[in-house]
Amino acid sequence: MQTKRLTPYLLILPATAFLAVLFLVPLVQTIWLAFSQGNAPSMANFQRMVSDLNFNTALRNTFLLTLFVVPVQIALSLAMGSLAMHIGKGRETILWIWTIPLGISDLAAGLVWLSILQNSGYLNSFLYGLGLIERQQAWLTYQTPIALFFGIAMAEIWRSTAIVMIVIVAGMNQVPKDFNEAAQVFGASRWTRFTKITLPLIRPALQSALILRTVLAFEVFAVVYTLGGRNFPVLMGEAYTWQNTNQNYGVAAAYAVLIMVISLVATFVYLKAIKVDPERLP
Amino acid sequence: MKITKTTSRLLGGAALAGLMLAGAAASAETIFLSTQLRPLEEAQAMRGDILKGVPDVNYVVEEPPQFPIRMTAESQTGRHTISLVGALHGELAPLAERDIFMPLNDLAAELAAAGMPQSVLDLGKLGTDDQEYIPWMQATYVMAAKKEALEYLPEGADINALTYEQLIAWGQAMKDATGAERIGFPAGPNGLMARFFEGYFYPSYTGGVVRSFRSADAVAGWEEFKELWSVVTPNSTNYAFMQEPLLADEVWVAWDHVARLKEALNVFPEDFVTFPAPAGPHGRGYMPVIAGLAIPQGAPDVDGATAIIRHLTQTDTQLLTAELVAFFPTMEVDLPEGGEDGVSLLASAVSATQSAPDALISLLPIGLGDKGGEFNKVYMDTFQRIVLNGEDIAATLAAEGDVLNALMQDTGAPCWAPDASSEGACPVE
Question: What residue ranges do the domains of chain B occupy?
Fold first, then answer.
């Protein structure tokens, strides 16, 4: 009897130990690094971070990018998911093609878009071929912030919409077919069925997708770094620069803590804002 | 049949195990840790060609930020694995201050007799009486231009004695003719633009680096630099290595580290010319980059390490190093001139720089310890604020000067050339 009660705890013990060693310890170390200076508690790193030249720009850019990219991705994924639900034959193939970008690393995705958008890239060659431009046009410089923003946003959307779509398609698969059929019998339009039946029923999936994507959007780095370099500072990029180029681990840790806090707040907001019935939770 | 297969597999396994055992037995090799020649091709050239003939050497590379951590850890725990280190002057200096290296005075005397200039050897003393490291190889920064850019060179300008005014006129002429900015700088995240300000711009315009940071000369210099930037391609803030935009024909005239231009010059040597960086009112600032070899205190194989140093400082090896990785000799060696390859092109620019009558040497920062990154940041932030964001020059220099002063006070680093020497921390005047 006694052993039986202990079994579940014994089974999760390795995973818990693993998490403690490889996740909790570095987490505590990072927090201490951020809130200390010369082994004494101090807010100096945060003061340094907030007063830095690029802090406000990085904060603004990260939020702008998240606020633009995440809604576009959710809308796209809902559209793609609905389309996929209506396809009979070849559905698997289409889903498979849509998820190809998932298998590509952030850095590689950035490089793909760099080869399109750089001066001697495909876009310029294409526009030149059509006679629309006379010479190479720069899209990714500090002088073209709007083109740079859309370039980065496009690369991000291309790279990571698939993960949202997978979660949403999984949610849509769980919506019972008879609901839709019943609504159809009563003459509900396609839009009404989507807003009144599908959307409310995929709430748990939507919530997971939003949390996942938003947290990842706050951590955006490689794509921005490849396309924009220093021209488009984001929070994660600043953390990297402080750690690697400026070699100040304290300020880098302060950035890491800030990103963590923002992610936690965003998760909390989604958990509160999108109500999910307890019985529909997995 | 089946039995034979199994047997052969077993035999293969036994042979492999035997080899591994033999490897373990022969592991009394000398470990040579280096922050230089890290890229795969350079490390391969080092292992396969440059270190050829040296028995039992294991060439291991390390990223610069990890290097001091590893060296300090070995020194503190007393568990030494590394017998020889190769790193930049600025990377070795803070470790030497903590007494991590053994003095190499006898070896230095030997090399002085063999033809290493005393001025170069003295760099390895780091201002002490002992030889902390042996100068191994050197590099610097030069300019490269495509030959088609030469027709826009302002009249009467000598490419080997260019001034910043002439560079601006040159850039303007190219912009007028082609409709695009054709000068490029490596001002991207991995570019070495900070070194341009520390070793070229500031010495040329103010005669100093730290002391004169916010002088009237500096204000005038930044005004002229803004003018220069109007003919520099805006893509510059994305560039890391200038060889790529030169090869892509995006840029016609570029400034960069010799190792970061080498590829373009090697591929199309007949398409390029190389020349020294321009001169300002105070002379032609230039920054030599010295890499040195040092033996840690408590190294397991001092004899092996000494043998490697002797090998690497031999005339033939030094010439081979220049040929393969474009780092130039520290020994008094004549480089083969007039060749058609990239390395001879670079060598001619290096010697034109060193022998320029108005040359003004600016050393790599010394004594900043792990604050080197933040020192660079002061110059890059100043650039970003004045040139990219268009902030007021005097106000920016005043504010960033305070940051620089605090940094110097914090580290206590004394002035280095071309700043006049100081008692204690180098002041921002």
Answer: 5-138+289-334, 141-287+338-429
